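Running this now, will post back.
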Amino acid sequence: MKKYIKLTPHFLAVSLLLTGCTPTVQLETPKEGITINMNVVVDHKINVEMDKETKQVLEK
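Update: finished.
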């Protein structure tokens, strides 16, 4: 024996409300490109070390 759901006015109202509130997801890309401003200061300190023989060759 199959059981059927009674179609009462409350059941119809609830089912119409639930079907009307389906969530939607929308994704849009920005019209302008993404700009990243970075204030970066780069300092380098370079040390050159030579052995004595190389230093003498370069001094000649």
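The CA atoms of residues 54 and 60 lie 10 Å apart. More later if anyone needs it.
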